[in-house]
Every structure is written in structure tokens, then in C-alpha cells.
Design goal:
The complex is a heterodimer. Chain A is α+β, with helices and mostly antiparallel strands. Chain A contains ten helices and eleven strands. The longest helix of chain A has 12 residues, at 184-195. The mean pLDDT of chain A is 93. Chain B folds into four domains: 8-110 and 447-541, Phosphorylase Kinase, domain 1; 116-179 and 379-443, Rossmann fold (3-Layer(aba) Sandwich); 183-362, Dimethylsulfoxide Reductase, domain 2, CATH 3.40.228; 570-728, Beta Barrel (Barwin-like endoglucanases), CATH 2.40.40.20. The model of chain B is unreliable at 1-6 and 23-34 (pLDDT under 50). At the A-B interface, α3, α4, β2, β3 and α8 of A face β3, α2, α7, β10 and β11 of B. β11 of chain A pairs parallel with β26 of chain B. The complex binds iron/sulfur cluster (SF4) (3 copies). One iron/sulfur cluster is lined by residues 61, 63-64, 66-68, 91, 95-96, 98-99, 222-223 of chain B.
């Protein structure tokens, strides 16, 4: 994709999703994460390793920033300069936001990362040439690059540990980029299963691994265009619009008492993950 | 009928239902005993196993003692992933990270694969026949009181068989040791509430005041409490529950508090008394003796002693008075002192004064079958075994589910004393520090290969017996299940009583069928019943409720806050993290690479120092610090941590292995080693927070390997992780 081509057709690239003339049908996968429920326990992150064949890189590679955790829990301290963080920390589960106008997609020279009709940002491993432009352009820094051939690296999956690997997912070799997929293998398996019944997936029939394990139920996942789905209802109640780069409620004088927001929305990646603000008691 | 000469009572005991508080059906022979049916483990590929299709089998997580039920995804005969079983009242379909890593315990490359007999400092592989013969030989002529079992918490039919085996040896010496255990609290609860472990209803409380109970991390039944916590945050009628956490080092739970109150180490009890006093001042009516007991704890004194401001104290009392019911919890941070029992008593008194007993703190059900009820560990057990070893009273020592060489403070000289026993047998998954000292190592099946039953101490609803069944064939042909080994051992002693059982599976099945009338309809077909048990993975029995009492005891002796030791000016807080606990799972790489939630550090230990104190001492992140107590020195990288009292430093437990396997050995340091030998005055439990240390820089600096970026947890004005104040939101409108 040449730069001139890119520039000429910029609007089109930027505008593939979301649009009214090409509505999501029948699926648009999305999430809602409640930061007031999330305890920062990291169970979701480990479940993601278990589900998605993520390599454990070890201490040295971790030091070089080569950790592969598709789901990471960011920990923030209050910045009020007080001696103690006496309202605790804030934990933020961070993974690919499955942007509708994904900054990572437009820069891929070979189109290895692109959008699916059901609103996922997909990564085609065997097309990826490892330029890492996508990672550089991702505002959320949730793309992870295979600097090594982990399947053959010592002590990553020694002997019997290979038996734990999920056969629904490939092992990624050296030189390819990877990231959270919204557990696409679970979505596809679910779709196939209900296809025989001639229907589409109902809310709750597919859970992502992180959602399924989360002991506080902080993560809601589902089909945003299904009015019956929890995720649809949450987005609606929080008045967060997928296609907006600034929510109407935020334009109101004095702000809003709704907790829903999207991170770095103003950059116009149109993320598919809505977060709900943490709450702290005012009476104590 | 059964043709041998033991009577019905004995038969029930053999099967683990001895002394049952509920009726058991009359004797009957099972088809297995009659030889009409053979036992075929269903893990042999059945017809319905289709390649490419996953099937799920229910079992029980054995990574900790909470007893969460799991559902293992099995494909082509191998287990891939564990999910929570939605039908369990303990974990309702959820799990923790430690539990997820159970598959890495199972597939671990460093498991022991065959029985090993010491020959010099090497282990020589031997057969099971030889191992059993050797045990019989070594026990020959040894009197029962010279035979000890040192185990971790045990329950279910493993415990029943273990008990029967010990009895057959004429030994009463079963010591149950947990290095990290709320044992002080159990004793205090027994006094205050008439039971060691009542039910805590976090979800019904409007305010939770927790004195260091890390119920979202590593305390008692974290998955269960995390779910309660989520409900508590949503609140009743849109009134969101408020969490106040009191501790000297921030735990994961503390990091989620609406107000985190840092206290001077050891003054938790004083603060509790101060809150009662302040409640009285705020107008809560106190009985005369309570009022008298808390009289000395006026807010100025309490503030001076604890470091909590009078303003916070008054606000806290107002909140507690205003929003009822509340719930007061206590954890290791309050228990770990020489006056731990007194701290606990003061904290329980606060719960009673607030009227929470019977509301947010309720009676738990008693396990009606004493033989399978859990026997819970404590640290006093280690002390007893250690003394017995030192005095030469133990000839043969068996260890199971515990790694005392790693977890005993080095001053106890446990490793040295271990040498005084004639014969040491370790039941082990790994060659850990304790197994390395053994004469005979017996390799265990993983929890995902084994049969069993497990009864958790914390029972949220009735009593749940969790069933463990193999999720796949054994990986290593020469490992054995604990139940299987115990059955073989007890058969050596009492062949007649156990001859009906070819293997542990047959034993377990017979035991369950024996009690069918209690669990289901006695008219139900045996196979239907048994298959039902296996497919559910859970048996729920009602269990009578323990009797909840609320005895106010105002006889509480709290010492004045400890003066700073000039030579050792810091209190060492050995912290218990959700993933690594006492270190038994440190060889599971997911746990090593999963960042510590608070510091985001991986694969190593660290010492937490308050930034202000660090500045005073000229310490920056990554400086290698020698942490010296009276009993030794360990070196760890410094991490500047705002959530800690400036007079305390904290090092996490669980790392610092010298053995165990490739992912554990050589990573980090072991703070157990340098603990001072101070015990709680009442219970004799090791006072984990009583160690005083001094710090010095060794002149080396490393890059701390951690997940947080250079911003170190700052957002720099970007709207990333956002917070609203509770008066700005209306949760009742939310879906
Ligand atoms: S979060 Fe990053 S990787 Fe994911 S779609 Fe958006 S830009 Fe791409
Ligand atoms: S599992 Fe749930 S509570 Fe734990 S860190 Fe992940 S989102 Fe938060
Ligand atoms: S809390 Fe314990 S029993 Fe439950 S999933 Fe975690 S490790 Fe397993």
C-alpha cells in the first residue's frame, strides 16, 4: 500500500467501520469493564495465557520489554502528592480495544491486521512480515511481537507442557505480531455450533476467557448490536456511542454522573471497549 | 453380607464416615465387592470421545484449600484448561490465577516421576513394592509414639485414610502445619463467636472495615469473597458498600479500599478499641464494661499510638454508626504479633459492639462427618514437631503437603533437627527443599490425575463436599495418588479390613455409596448415583449450623506501641501474595511471570520501602539492600512503595527456593529464613510480623524487572483510569 494510495483513499480506510451504510450485522463484539468491580487480581491475565498459548518469556526477556501478556493489569497511583495512597490504587485491565478505525490497521504494509465484519481487529499471522508498524501506531500499546521462536525456545513449553496447548489456536513463530483477539476461536466455535440450529448466538453463549474467570464479574462481553445483550444495555445506559469521538453526555455543562467512558476516544480509534469509572466513597 | 469379622461401626470408620452426626444406611454389599462388576476408570477413552471435540469434567481445584470446584476442558484425552464450575456455592463458575495455573502443576517438567531412595546425596529410583517394603521394615519395632506425620491441611477421604493408618500404627502424632494460616483468628473467633470460622457476608454489609484481611487476594476463600465484594460494590438499593482497610502494608484488598488507613505496625487492636470509644462518643450505646474497657482509648491517645488522625477516626466511627449493618474482618496484619490474640479480641469486640453478629457474620454449618472434616494447619504444629525432632522423639517422619525446610525460620534449625529422625519419607510432587532431605520420596499424582474428596474449611452454604476425579490419564506411570498410597500402607497393617478395595477408586466409590441415603435417595440405583456424583463434582449436604454465640470479652490487654529498636529500626512484614502464598507453587511459570498486582514486579523478590524513608536513607529503586534481622540477612532489590508505613519494610513470601524446579530455583529470596522466633502469647503461633530488621545498601544496583512503565503509575493528565466520587454517581440507574 503506497503512501499516495493511502492518502488518496484515506477517508475510505478510515471509514470502513463504523458506518451507517454498512451496519454491523448480525454481530458487533464489544466489552464493558467495570473498574469499580475489578480488584486487580490478574486472574484474567493468567486465564488468557492458558487459553491463547501465550509464551512465558522469562526474566531476561521480560526485562527487555518482551513480555507477551495480551491482557495486562495496569496499576495507577493517585497523583495528588499525598504521603500515602489513602484511596488505594486503580487497576485497569488493558488489552486490544478492537478499534473500529484501528490505527494499527492502516499502517500495516501487507494488510496482515484488518477488520472483520463482526467488528474485530484481526491479525493474520502468516501474512505478517514483522514490520511492527502496527505496534508503533497502537495508542494502547497492546501489540506483542515474537522476537524469538518461542515454541522452540528452552523452557517455554518443555516436554509435557506442550500438551496443555490449546489446539484451536496456532503457535506463533518468530517475527510475527500478536495481540488479544477477543478469544476469536471461542466466537467462531460458538457461531458454528448455532449455525446448525439456524440462529445466531445469544447473549452469554460465548464468553471470553478473561470474562469467564473474573471473580468479580468486572468484564462483560457480548454482541453490541443485540438489544438483549448486557453489553448493549450497559453501553446504552452509560450513553456511550460506538461511532462518536466525543460523547454527547461529556459535552454537558458540569459533566455527567454516568461512569462509562472510552480511553483515548479523542484520537478517534473508536474503541470497542467501554470502561466504567472506579468509584470512591466521599463520606470517608 | 460382609464376611469378615469387623462390625458395622468399624466398617463405617474404614470408609471415613465414623462418628457421623447423621444416620447412615445399613450394611449392604456393593457390586464391586461382590466381584460382579469391575472397576474401569472412565478416563480410558470412551466411545463418546470424539477427536476435535472438547468435553468438560468436573473436579476440584487443589492449588489452595478453598475448595473451588472446577470444570476441566479435555480434548483428545488431555486437559487443556480449567474453568470454574458454576454450580459450586464456593466459587460459582469463577477462579483465581493460582487456580488457573493448576494445569502447570500437572504438566510440570520437574515433577518427581518415580519413588526415590536416598543413596548418599542422590536419589535412586526404586519400585513401589520396594518402597512399601522399606516402609514396613523401617516401621518394624518402632512404637507408635515415635512415628509422626507432618502434613498441610487435609480433609476428605485422604484424611480419613490417614487417620486410620496412623491408628493402625498406634500413633497419635498427626501434626498439621500451614506456614500461612489465620490460626490466631480461629482461636479468637472461637472465644467471641463460638466457632472458628463463621460465615462472612461481605455482600450484606454497607461498610466493611478490614484489619489487614486480604480477602480479595490470599485470605481464606478469595474467589468466594471477590464475588461477594462485587455485589457489595453494587450495593443494596444503589447504596454502594464502603471498604475501609487498616494495615501497615497495602494488600491487594487495601488497594481497593475507599479509605486505606496506614497504622503503626502492631497497633491494630488499639485502633479497634479507639473506634469503639469513638462510637460511644458519637452516641452508640455501649454496655458498662465495654465503655469502661475502651475508656483509656480516647481519640488523641489512639491517634498518637496508631498514627491514624483523629479526624479519620471520628469519620470512621460516624460512618459505622450511620450505615448498618457493617462487617469487621481481621487478617494476618493484625494477628502476626506477640499480642496477636489480643488484637484479634479487640477487633472481634468491635464487630460485636456494632451488632454485626447474626447479620453479616453468621453461623457456618458443621461438617457432619468428623473423619473427613478438614483438619486445619497452624504454625504451632511445626514447633511441636521441631521440638520432638530435636529431642530425638521421632524415629520415622512422614511429610505431605508441606515444605517445612523452606518455610521454617532458620533459627528453628528444622533442617538440622530433621537429621535426627532415623527415616524420613516425603510424599512429594517436586523435589523441594524438604523432599531433598528425605530418605524416601514417594511421587504423587497431580491433582488432575487423582481421585479424592475435599472439604473446605470455609463453607458459605451448608457443607459442600468437593469431588476430585482424574481429568486425564496419568502422565507418569510411576506416580501414585495420596489416597492410593495410604490405602496400600493401611493394607499392610490391616489387610482384612481393606481387602475389599482393589484400589482407591473402589474405596472411594464404596464409601460414597455407603452414604448414599445421606446424599441422595437411598432407592437410587448405585451407578446412577455415582455417575451423578462424578458428573456434578459436588455433593451438598445440609449440615447443622454451629451455634453462634456472641460473648463479649473486655479482658483485652494491649501493649503500648513497640518502641523503635535502635539496632533494628524496621518492622519486617513478610507479605502473602495471592499467587505465591507460602511458595509451594513457585515452580509454575505463569505465576512467576504474572506481575505482582501492586508493584508489577515479576520473577524476583523485592523489598518495599516508603519513598520518604528511602529518600532519607539515600535508597533508589533497584538498589540491592541487605535486610538483616537477628537471625540472618537476605539481599533484595529496593522498590519504592507508597503503600507502606515508613517504619516498616515488606518482602513477599514464596520465592527464594534452592530446589523444587527450573522456574522456582534461584529466583528471589526467602524471608521465612530470617524471621525472629516470637510467638503469639496465647496460641503459640509464630508471630510473623514481629521481626525487626535493619537495612544497608550493598553498593549494587539492578534494573527492577517489572511491568509498569517509566511513568511508574502516573497518568500525566490523560484520562486513562478514571475515578468518580460516590456523590457524583447514581448506581441505582445502572444495568
Ligand atoms: S487497540 Fe491497538 S492493536 Fe487493538 S485495534 Fe486498536 S490500535 Fe489496533
Ligand atoms: S480477573 Fe477481573 S477482577 Fe481480576 S484483574 Fe481481571 S478484570 Fe480485574
Ligand atoms: S481460591 Fe484456591 S481453590 Fe479457588 S481457584 Fe484459587 S487456588 Fe483454586
Amino acid at each position: 500500500m503506497s503512501v499516495s494510495n493511502l492518502l488518496e483513499n484515506w477517508a475510505e480506510f478510515r471509514h470502513t467501520h463504523p458506518v451507517d451504510d454498512v451496519p454491523h450485522d448480525p454481530y458487533k463484539w464489544a466489552m464493558s469493564i467495570d473498574l469499580d468491580a475489578c480488584s486487580g487480581c490478574n486472574a484474567c491475565s493468567i486465564a488468557c495465557y492458558a487459553e491463547n498459548n501465550i509464551p512465558v518469556v522469562g526474566k531476561d526477556k521480560f526485562e527487555h520489554g518482551q513480555v507477551m501478556h495480551w491482557m495486562r493489569i495496569e496499576r495507577y497511583w493517585p497523583e495528588d502528592g499525598r504521603e500515602f495512597p489513602d484511596q488505594g490504587a486503580t487497576f485497569l485491565p488493558m488489552m486490544c480495544q478492537q478499534c473500529e478505525a484501528a490505527p494499527c490497521e492502516t499502517v500495516c504494509p501487507v494488510g496482515a491486521t484488518n477488520h472483520t465484519a463482526d467488528g474485530l481487529n484481526s491479525q493474520i499471522y502468516n501474512r505478517c512480515v514483522g514490520s511492527r508498524y502496527c505496534s508503533a501506531n497502537c495508542p494502547f500499546k497492546v501489540r506483542y511481537f515474537n522476537w524469538y521462536d518461542y515454541p522452540t525456545t528452552e523452557n517455554v513449553w518443555p516436554a509435557e507442557m506442550t500438551q496443555q496447548l490449546n489446539p484451536d489456536i496456532t503457535l506463533r513463530g518468530k517475527g510475527v505480531m500478536e495481540k488479544c483477539t477477543f478469544c476469536v476461536q471461542r466466537i467462531r466455535a460458538g457461531e458454528r455450533a448455532v449455525k446448525n440450529e439456524g440462529r445466531i448466538l445469544r447473549d452469554g453463549e460465548v464468553q471470553t476467557a478473561c470474562q469467564q474467570v473474573c471473580p468479580t464479574g468486572a468484564i462483560t462481553f457480548g454482541n453490541l448490536v443485540d438489544p438483549e445483550s448486557k453489553v448493549h444495555q450497559k453501553w446504552k445506559a452509560q450513553q456511550v456511542e460506538l461511532t462518536a469521538d466525543e460523547q454527547e453526555k461529556d459535552k454537558e455543562e458540569g459533566g455527567t454522573d454516568l461512569r462509562g467512558y472510552r480511553i483515548l476516544e479523542e484520537l478517534r480509534p473508536y474503541p470497542s471497549v467501554m470502561y466504567m469509572e472506579r468509584v470512591r466513597e466521599s463520606a470517608i | 453380607m460382609i464376611d469378615n469379622n469387623f462390625d458395622r461401626r468399624d466398617f463405617l470408620k474404614v470408609l471415613g464416615w465414623g462418628g457421623a452426626a447423621v444416620a447412615l444406611s445399613g450394611c449392604g454389599n456393593t457390586s464391586v465387592e461382590d466381584g460382579k462388576e469391575t472397576v474401569v476408570s472412565y478416563v480410558e477413552a470412551a466411545e463418546y470421545v470424539a477427536p476435535g471435540i472438547s468435553v468438560y469434567f468436573n473436579s476440584t481445584c487443589a492449588q489452595c484449600d478453598a475448595g473451588c470446584s472446577i470444570s476441566g476442558r479435555v480434548r483428545e484425552g488431555r486437559v487443556l484448561k480449567l474453568e470454574g464450575n458454576p454450580d459450586s456455592v464456593i466459587n460459582r463458575g469463577k477462579m483465581c490465577g493460582l487456580g488457573q495455573a493448576g494445569v502447570q502443576h500437572h504438566y510440570n517438567p520437574d515433577r518427581v516421576r518415580e519413588p526415590l531412595l536416598r543413596s548418599g546425596d542422590r536419589g535412586e529410583a526404586i519400585t513401589w513394592d520396594k518402597a512399601y517394603a522399606l516402609i514396613a521394615e523401617k516401621l518394624n519395632g518402632v512404637s507408635g509414639d515415635q512415628i509422626d506425620f507432618l502434613t498441610g491441611t487435609v480433609s476428605g477421604h485422604t484424611k480419613a485414610l490417614l487417620g486410620n493408618y496412623l491408628e493402625s500404627l498406634g500413633s497419635k502424632n498427626h501434626f498439621v502445619y500451614e506456614a500461612v494460616s489465620p490460626a490466631v483468628q480461629r482461636a479468637a473467633n472461637m472465644k467471641s463467636y463460638g466457632m472458628e470460622m463463621p460465615r462472612f457476608n461481605i455482600n450484606k454489609a454497607k461498610v466493611v472495615l478490614s484489619f489487614g484481611a486480604d480477602f480479595l487476594g490470599a485470605w481464606v476463600s478469595p474467589v468466594h469473597f471477590s464475588q461477594q465484594y462485587a455485589e457489595f460494590r453494587k450495593g443494596v438499593d444503589g447504596q454502594r458498600g464502603v471498604l475501609v482497610q487498616v494495615e501497615s502494608k497495602m494488600t491487594l484488598t487495601g488497594a481497593n479500599a475507599d479509605r486505606w488507613l496506614v497504622v503503626r505496625p502492631g497497633t491494630e487492636g488499639i485502633l479497634a478499641m479507639g473506634v469503639i470509644n469513638a462510637l460511644g462518643v458519637a452516641g452508640l450505646s455501649l454496655s458498662a464494661d465495654v465503655a469502661a474497657a475502651v475508656k483509656p482509648y480516647d481519640k488523641e491517645r489512639v491517634s498518637k499510638d496508631t498514627g491514624v488522625s483523629t479526624e479519620s477516626l471520628v469519620k470512621l466511627a460516624a460512618l459505622l454508626k450511620d450505615r448498618t449493618p457493617s462487617l469487621v474482618l481481621l487478617g494476618s496484619a493484625a494477628e502476626g504479633y506477640a499480642h496477636g490474640s489480643q488484637n484479634a479480641a479487640a477487633i472481634n469486640l468491635l464487630n460485636q459492639v456494632l451488632g454485626n453478629v447474626g447479620k453479616t457474620l453468621e453461623a457456618s454449618a458443621a461438617v457432619p462427618f468428623p473423619q473427613i472434616a478438614p483438619t486445619i494447619g497452624n504454625t504451632a504444629a511445626l514447633r511441636m514437631v521441631n521440638n520432638r525432632l530435636a529431642d530425638g522423639q521421632i524415629k520415622v517422619l512422614f511429610t505431605y503437603g508441606t515444605n517445612p525446610v523452606f518455610t521454617a525460620p532458620s533459627e528453628m534449625k528444622f533442617k538440622e533437627n530433621l537429621g535426627k529422625a532415623n527415616f524420613r519419607v516425603a510424599f512429594a510432587h517436586y523435589l523441594d527443599e524438604t523432599a531433598l532431605q528425605a530418605d524416601l520420596v514417594l511421587p504423587l499424582d497431580s491433582a488432575l490425575e487423582d481421585w479424592g474428596t475435599l472439604v473446605a474449611e470455609y463453607q458459605p452454604e451448608g457443607v459442600q463436599i468437593s469431588v476430585q476425579q482424574p481429568l486425564m490419564e496419568k502422565l507418569h506411570p510411576e506416580t501414585r495418588g495420596m489416597g492410593e498410597i495410604l490405602l496400600s500402607l493401611v493394607k499392610q497393617r490391616q489387610p482384612e479390613s481393606y481387602k475389599a478395595f482393589d484400589d482407591y477408586y473402589a474405596y472411594l466409590r464404596t464409601a460414597m455409596l455407603k452414604n448414599k441415603s445421606e446424599f441422595a435417595n437411598s432407592a437410587m440405583d448405585d451407578d446412577v448415583f455415582w455417575n451423578g456424583v462424578l458428573s456434578a463434582g459436588i455433593i451438598n449436604v445440609g449440615g447443622n449450623l454451629n451455634k453462634l454465640s456472641s460473648k463479649l470479652s473486655t479482658n483485652i490487654q494491649l501493649p503500648a506501641p513497640a518502641e523503635q529498636d535502635a539496632k533494628y529500626p524496621f518492622t519486617l512484614i513478610p507479605s502473602v501474595t495471592a499467587n505465591l502464598r507460602d511458595g509451594r507453587h513457585a515452580n509454575q511459570p505463569w505465576l512467576q511471570e504474572s506481575p505482582d498486582p501492586l508493584t508489577t514486579i515479576v520473577w524476583d523478590s523485592w523489598v518495599e520501602i516508603h519513598p520518604k524513608k528511602a529518600a532519607e536513607l539515600g535508597i533508589v529503586e533497584g538498589d540491592i539492600i541487605a535486610i538483616e534481622s537477628k537471625n540472618g540477612t537476605i539481599n533484595a532489590q529496593a522498590y519504592l512503595f507508597p503503600g507502606i508505613h515508613p517504619d516498616a519494610v515488606s518482602i513477599p513470601l514464596g520465592r527464594g527456593h534452592e530446589a523444587m524446579g527450573r522456574y522456582a530455583k534461584g529466583y528471589g529470596v526467602n524471608p521465612f529464613q530470617i524471621l525472629d522466633r516470637v510467638f503469639d502469647g496465647e496460641t503459640g503461633e509464630l508471630a510473623m510480623h514481629e521481626t525487626k530488621v535493619k537495612l544497608s545498601k550493598v553498593g549494587k544496583r539492578v534494573i527492577v524487572v517489572k511491568d509498569e512503565g517509566f511513568a511508574g503509575g502516573a497518568q500525566h493528565g490523560k484520562k486513562i483510569a478514571m475515578t468518580k466520587s460516590s456523590d457524583q454517581v447514581d448506581l441505582s440507574e445502572e444495568v
